[in-house]
Design a protein that fits this description.
single chain, mainly alpha
Length: about 325
């Protein structure tokens, strides 16, 4: 019989797996990256804080330090009794509230309508809202003055004559509200447009309308709660604009808070600086309240569940 040669056993393909019972080796890692130093962040914050706080501290020292007398808070104690302080402050706050209400009343429905019905008109609305950034305030107030002078001369025998007199009432000049609304439109538009881009307006409106909600209910109880932060931002910027505006009010002959500060600066330098510091604190407090109102979680009320069609029993 011939000798039989043993057949070699088939070798398993090399799959790269470690044999059973052996300890798997950790993959080789590159050199560990050292964490970047964060010292520059503290330096930037320190420089920014110094940029804002050093002038305020210097102004405060100027108001309380009287050469030859030491420390005196007389500039602050005489504020409430100063002539025109309370009236000008209340006038500026009233103008700010009216401007915020009018600008939001004009901008919110327009932007929602453009968002839902006519998206192609958005560039036109944007250009119209951004025009006040191009027109200087001095040109705007020149046009307003020309209209106010032209009106009584040509409309003296019409009922509009009393309207021209009413909008220039010194107790509450409506003409300033109209001018401030025009100046605030760019900031209101940017804030509301960002908020509308962040939510799905067509889906929210369609869902609420399918549940039987009316258009006022949709706007007031569905859209506005979702735009709370944007509305607070628009009010935030409008308030800061109105409280610090000087050119238009001064040239039209009115005396809100900013004009009053400049008026008393010549005769009472320390008091005017003290009023400026106080106005900054009041503005920051109001802006803090608005920012807190905008950061509260939005609660969307459920639309009334009413059937659009009533079924009659057979």
């Amino acid at each position: 019989m011939a000798a039989m040669t043993p057949t070699p056993a088939p070798t398993a393909p090399d799959t790269g797996a470690a044999p059973a019972g052996s300890t798997p080796q950790a993959p080789a890692r590159g050199p560990r990256r050292r964490p970047r130093p964060r010292v520059w962040r503290g330096a930037v914050l320190l420089l920014a804080g110094a940029y804002f706080l050093v002038p305020l501290i210097a102004s405060f020292v100027f108001t309380v330090h009287v050469p030859g007398q030491g420390v005196s808070f007389e500039a602050y104690t005489q504020l409430l009794s100063a002539d025109g302080f309370t009236e000008s402050m209340l006038l500026s706050l009233g103008l700010a509230a009216a401007t915020i209400a009018l600008s939001l009343l004009l901008a919110v429905p327009a932007l929602v309508a453009v968002r839902l019905g006519s998206p192609r008109l958005r560039p036109v609305v944007e250009v119209m809202c951004m025009l006040p950034l191009v027109v200087p305030p001095i040109a705007l107030v020149t046009g307003i003055t020309t209209v106010l002078r032209w009106g009584p001369e040509h409309l003296s025998r019409t009922p509009f004559y009393q309207t021209f007199l009413a909008v220039q009432n010194e107790q509450f000049p409506v003409v300033l509200v109209l001018a401030y609304t025009v100046l605030a439109l760019p900031f209101v538009y940017r804030s509301l447009d960002a908020g509308l881009r962040a939510i799905d307006v067509p889906t929210l409106v369609e869902a609420a309308r399918s549940c039987g909600a009316s258009w006022p209910y949709v706007v007031l109880r569905v859209l506005l709660p979702n735009l709370r932060s944007s509305l607070a931002g628009a009010a935030f910027l409008t308030l800061a604009l109105v409280l610090g505006e000087f050119t238009i009010a001064s040239l039209l002959g009115f005396r809100p808070f900013a004009v009053w500060i400049v008026t008393i600066s010549g005769a009472h330098a320390r008091m005017s600086v003290a009023v400026s510091i106080l106005s900054l604190l009041i503005t920051w407090l109001l802006l803090l309240v608005l920012s807190r109102a905008g950061t509260n979680p939005a609660t969307v009320s459920s639309a009334p569940r009413t059937s659009p069609t009533s079924h009659k029993e057979s």
